[in-house]
Amino acid sequence: MTDAGPTIVALSGGVDSAVTALLLLRAGHAVQGLFMHNWDDDEEGYCTSAQDFQDARAVAQVLGIPLHSVDLSAQYRARVFAHFLAEYQAGRTPNPDVLCNREIKFGDCLTHARRLGAAWLATGHYARIEQRADGPALLKGVDGGKDQSYFLHAVPRAQFRQVLMPLGELHKERVREIAREAGLPVHAKRDSTGICFIGERPFREFLAQYVPSTPGPILTPEGTLLGEHVGLPFYTLGQRGGIHLGGKRGYGEAPWYVAGKDAARNALLVVQGQDHPALYCRSVRVEGVNWLVPAPTGAFEAGVKLRYRQADQATRVTPGPDGGLQLAPLEPQRAVTPGQSAVLYDGALCLGGGIITGTGS
User: Fold this and answer.
1) CATH topology of domain 282-360
2) CA–CA dist 302, 135 (Å, integer)
């Protein structure tokens, strides 16, 4: 990228990226928009990509900026969606938003922005990038309810060197106010929720199109047979709904929760009560760690999120010789799920993170 080039805004068709472009225009940047087509299979009409592109065009027209588009659907399918399916088939629960940020938004999209001669790539994430003497730092957004640093922890640190995230200093309510006051056509557009390629359809319905049903026994930890599940990929740890057990003679009326998966027996393990001890763990194994600070060599204390929106959990972190981490939270943690991310913080500073591969009592 060159300092004299334009600032390319990843314009998604939503209010956040629209206000990002507006703020940078007001700050004197030579702004251009870039819309990414990431999904190419929409036979049932759940994907909103076509409408989002039209909304991005409308925003670009109001702002008077050029709008480029790039088709990254093949890359997304190969490096995000394929991983998503493989993880579910292996009995884990992945987070495709984390992989999309690393592989697509700050991978292929960043590469395309460079081809356009960009000086900066800007996104509508609620997080902050500070360019420090030793390199870029990723910090939480000031709006704690919208902070998205959790989803950005896997991006290689160097990719943040010429990235702007102006919404990190704002609260969502203010962003909508700015959009409304400026007459942006997406000021009241509803935020997208869930996984982008699934849309509003039921998750199990979508997954069943790609992952075969492999029924097996539903067991208590003691081995008592309670029923039959439809396939381990269709359940996640801590899940309550969708188990379809109902009342079981001798077990009372307390609801059942998924406590584990036994792949060797193709068995789903369930317990009664949301605070059952089998739902909790005291240690967590993490692999595939990406550091956004110099990698620590010894044990240290950090705040850790084991799922999005969780408050930081005070944790003793011990690096292993293989590059993985052993986490020892001060408090037992409920429904820690292999395949999800463990993200480390020192206050507002994101230290990095990796993938949860196992837990221990």
Assistant:
1) Elongation Factor Tu (Ef-tu); domain 3 (2.40.30)
2) 21
